[in-house]
Amino acid sequence: MSSNQQVISYADLSIINSALRSISSDMSGVNSELGTLNFKQDQLESELVKLADAFADFVEADLKHKALQLAETRQGNLKQDLQIKFGYYAEVRRMATGILQGVDTGVVSDETLKFTTEEVMIKAPGYWLAPALVALAAWVRSDKSTNEKALNEALKRDDYKTTLFFMLVMRRLTRNDASLKWLERYFMHQNPHNLDREFIIILEAVTTGVFPPASRQLMMINVKNWLDQLTQGDNFINEQKAQWVRFFEAKGPLPDGKYPLLEKFATNWIDLASSMRFAKTHGVLQSHFNNIFSATSDFSKSVKVQLDEILSLLVTNFDDEELPLQEQVRLNQLIIQMDGDKKSAQAMIDAEKHIFNEQVDFLQMLTNAAFNPELAGATKVTQALAVSISQPWIVEAHDTFTGNSRNKIPATVDLNIDGFISSTKDGSDEKEQVEKHETFWGNVLQTELGKLSFPTGMVIIGALICVGGLYGFTINPIVGLIGLGIGGVLIWNSINNHNKAKKAITENIEERKTKSKEVLRGCIAETVDFRKEHSTEDAKAEGLRQLLTSITAEDFSSVSKGSKSILQTN
Amino acid sequence: MARIILQNDNINLDTGKKETVSTGFISDRDILKKRSKKYLDLIAGLDAKTLTDTKGMGELMKAIQEEFGTAELTSLPLGIVSKCFLGHPYEVHTLDLSGSQIIKHYKTTETMEADFEKARTVAKHNAYAMVEVYKDKIILVREDGTATKL
After folding, report:
1. What's the CA gap between A294 and A139, in Å, rounded?
2. pLDDT digits (tens, 9 = 90+) for B29-59
3. ipTM of the complex
4. A361, A418, A513, B4: which has the fewest C-beta neighbours closer than 10 Å?
5. Could you give the CA distance from residue A395 to residue B32 in angstroms, rounded to a whole number?
6. pTM score, two decimals?
7. 120-149 of B, contacting A, C-beta below 8 A
């Protein structure tokens, strides 16, 4: 067997080896070929991806382009449609502005007014503005019967818009009785659960005295009715109350770092700090409300501008009938603007629609105006009015806020100073605290010293060596002396070390105690200040409450027009 | 100068926006109505009088039921916590209405029953005459009788 193996190994291995080597070199050749191939394939793939991307881009661009073209065509068609169906509406609107200006200045003759408005009436059937203009022209030339007929028609076509239109026109022409009548009708249109956007401006106009003085009385009556309606249930009021409470909570000032020791050593500092923040809120709120009621500037001018804006929007804006068509025109316009991007155009038009659909209930509108008049489209005067109307639930919200924060006043200040745990109510117990502190550190010293064991072993060993030394005297006095010496040194050394350790511990504890006492005293002093400041700030709640309860909505309506401060606090 | 043009009696005003008013549920308004002076005085007088005799106690209960307009124990507070003016060490006292109807004075260090304890901090506060404790809420009553729900 073994000789056979040897024969084979000697005979064949070299040939096989060389064959294997050549195979392996071939393989490496193949490998390198494969590598190039892989590389080429990667290249090809990336090219393909590029191509696919380019294609996708092309398709998208093409789609956009087509959408753009389609939008352009459609817009043209829609505009034509609009022109055919409602073309006269635009003319009426243009004319309305002209007629209003003519009535304002009085330069257009009654005959012209009569003729043009009647023509408009024929040209734009179904549009409320046409009979409204006829009525206006008839009113100017004192044609009562035509006026009434036209008015009835306008109201039939669109009661709300006609009301708003005449209310604003009469206000412009300072026809007090008439504008008051229209205002009354306008209020009847309003649903306190769902107020229109422009209501705040009307409210503002009445508040600032742009409308005749009697309008205030009218408004207050309406407002009272609405409040009665809305405050039947708890929901509306509780909702506003909750908002006010959140508003109060957010008004708290930032911490001022006045109590550095308590911040570091009071374990309930977070509660203490938030309690202080709540207490300090009252002062901030007091100046906030004072500020609202100290507004003296005259806003009636800007309100008049706003009213005219409503009027011009009313006569220039599209009518409800046209709206679906106009919206489509707007969508296509946006698509063109977005270079054919349909999605973003749709998103934009949705956002636009949302703004115009915004309707709020009366209480919410008051709250908005009271929180942020600028954002709600009102001035400080309306803010003051809103606050005075909301007064009952503002007081309630403030009571809740105060009650809540008082409920959370920490009863004690809990301290942890270097292991000394204690709590003090108001820092008046300094003597007791210091005594407690003394006892605590006395105990600490005792336990620390207790941990240090007396070196009994070493002393015994030393003593034994000493005894050995005494015994050594019998052999040799020198050996005895050495023994005694070693023993003595051992005993002395260990006792000395022990005393040193004791001293170190005592000194260390003494030092910690002194520091801790300083901190304790500081904390107590800060606690006294903290409680003092807290109760001062907390007491401001009562002052604020008085201010809030003294506000009454009635004050507002009794002050005559033109007086600077419309709202007064008692 | 003003011309009367608005003889609009014949115009039918129909805004179609009439709201239905919900009725028949117990509102917060009822719970938060102003407490009467009589009731406040009665509770404030608890320190002075001892009320050991049954007649005094009965009168007190009657007045409370009158105040809340019901004799049903479920809609009455569990009890009333207010600041105790007996002086140190007494801090607050409770009037337990849930059945035993006992007045109890608590020292600074004593803890009250869990339901009452939650009213302790506010009851101590000078701004409130008393605190009515309910199962699910507490109501703070000021000296002038106004109530706040917490």
Report:
1. 43
2. 677 788 888 888 877 776 655 555 455 667 7
3. 0.74
4. B4
5. 13
6. 0.69
7. 121-122, 125, 127-128, 140, 146, 148-149
